[in-house]
Predict the 3D structure of the following.
Amino acid sequence: MGPRSSGLRRLVREVAKFGTVGVAGIFVNLGVFNLVRHVSDLPVVRAGVIATVVAIAFNYVGFRYWTYRDRDKSGRTKELTLFLFFSAIGLVIENGVLYLATYGFGWDSPLQNNVFKFVGIGVATLFRFWSYRTWVFRAMPAQEAESILVSTVKKPRSKAEPKSQRVP
């Protein structure tokens, strides 16, 4: 298999992991959304924003420590700042759809709220996938990744072991 098929395989694996975290995040988002709507008198979009913020925190942990665990880990402050920036844009997209449906078209039943919250999540997910993989969880340059791999594979030489027996 050539480099193209291995790159495609990596992309498919990345999309699958992103999707797994994302589906779990959807359950968190919709669960918190419905819980807040049920136990409070907050307007629908405010409940949506609260749910999105909780899901963003959940998703960061999943993306950083599972989906993109092999990506560059230097500059965590920059990574988190970019993640929050792009997540905020996604929050606006997601809850903008909910706002438009609720206040623009008057679709305000619990079922309609959930449908348009879900639609908003879907639209925002496309933006998030592109922005997270492009700007937040960037791939390491090949040379740096290779040097890290080599340094973890090399067996440290003990003092009793002569140089000639050292494995390169």
In short: The chain has a mean pLDDT of 85. The chain is about 75% helix and 0% strand. Residues 35 and 47 are 9 Å apart (CA to CA). The two ends are 28 Å apart (CA to CA).
